[in-house]
Amino acid sequence: MTTVQTVRGPIAVEVLGTVLMHEHVFVLNEEVRRNYPHLWDEEAQVESAVTRLRALAERGVDTIVDPTVIGLGRDIERVARINAQVDLNIVPATGLYTYGDVPFCFSMHGPGTPLGGEEPLVELFVRDITEGIAGTDIKAAFLKCAIEDALTPGVERVLAAVAETHHRTGVPITVHTNPKSETGLVAQKVLRDRGVDLSQVVIGHSGDTTDLDYLRRLADAGSYLGMDRFGLDFLLPGDERLATVAALAAEGLAERMVLAHDASCHIDWLQPGVREQVLPNWHYTHLHDDVLPALREAGVTEQQLTTMLVDNPRRYFTPTS
After folding, report:
1. Cα–Cα–Cα angle for 40, 42, 48, nearest 5°?
2. Measuring CA to CA, which of 12, 64, 116, 223 is 20 to 30 A from 179?
3. Cofactor note, please (predicted)?
4. Structural domain count, the chain
5. Within a domain: residue 311?
6. CATH number of 12's domain
7. In this structure, is residue 294 part of a structural domain?
8. Residue 26 pLDDT level (bands cut at 50, 70, 90)
């Protein structure tokens, strides 16, 4: 029986149910939070998170996949405290999120650094997967990395560490990408050159473009397309996101897409109130309340929706060997 690690422990892949493949609980700069505590009310934020996640579960969502890693403020103990109050599977990640350099604490040791040596990131990622995160018994179920506009040396180093960890552990990979710079193709090349089976990779934020040729190239290489930013309308209006998913589904590519919002209970990238004013649809329940009905009207079938929300996540978390 294939199992998937969640915050509440391992579960059978068959019971993942309906899955949103890219949702955060919190996105924070933990150093800022700790040094400016007046910016953060722990109890209020935990209570708000519980309320928001319960609303999502009430819509029939069984699982969220949370790609919050180092660089995005991962605090697995806080997430576990919230998850204990919500009947929802939360699938945690390991990895490192950077668009440029690795953190200074990794800058002197490892490949391409002044002191050289083995890559310390691999050991840390493997530990999260095999032993547990932050001294807990909560294990990461997948790897997360990022490439925004360019393949910097730091970004390539993280991608290489992720590829090596994938080979050692067998867990799948999700990559933050920028379709406007076509960095999904760059990520695929780096990972493929390091022997990664691209069918075990989600190219995140593919839904930020209407360029069907670009999306077909990603899908033809075997990866899943992360159509995972519904509600982030300032990056691409919702009607264009819908039309793109519907067009690809009509071409028979539902088996290569996964759906989500890339939302969170709280993200400190935005000032208080801005998200509600500027991005009123960017929340966990937008997909079930608004997007899925609109996709049905656009001709996407129930079987195709099940494929994107149930079958594809199940395959992604099922090892290929």
Report:
1. 100
2. 64
3. Binds 2 divalent metal cations per subunit.
4. 1
5. yes
6. 3.20.20.140
7. yes
8. very high
Q: How are the residues of the chain apportioned to helix, strand and coil, as percentages rounded to the nearest 5?
A: 45, 15, 40
- According to DSSP, the β-strands at 3-4 and 11-12 are antiparallel
Does pTM top 0.90 for this prediction? yes
E strands along 196-314, which residues?
201-204, 224-227, 257-259, 266-267
| Strand segments (E) across 92-168 | 93-95, 142-146
Range of the domain at 89: 3-316
**Residue 251: how many CB atoms within 10 A of its CB?**
13
Phi, psi of 316 (to 5 degrees): -60, -40
- List residues forming the annotated binding site: 22, 24, 144, 176, 205, 262
Residue with tokens 């999502």: 56
Residue pair 259/204 in contact by the 8 Å Cβ criterion: no
The answer to whether residue 321 sits within a structural domain is no
- CB of 79 closer than 8 Å to CB of 35: no
Residue set of the binding site for Zn(2+) = 22, 24, 144, 176, 205, 262
- Of residues 76, 64, 57, the one with CA closest to residue 20: 64
* Cα three-residue angle 50-3-173, rounded to 5 degrees: 80
Share of the chain above pLDDT 90, in %: 96
Q: What would the pLDDT profile of 187-220 be if each residue is shown by its tens digit?
A: 999 999 999 999 999 999 999 999 999 999 999 9
CA distances to 49, 107, 120, 129, 239 from 19, in Å: 18, 37, 32, 21, 22
C-alpha to C-alpha distance for 210 and 235, rounded to whole angstroms? 11
Burial of 115 (0-12, 13-18, 19+ CB in 10 A): exposed
**Inside any domain, residue 124:** yes
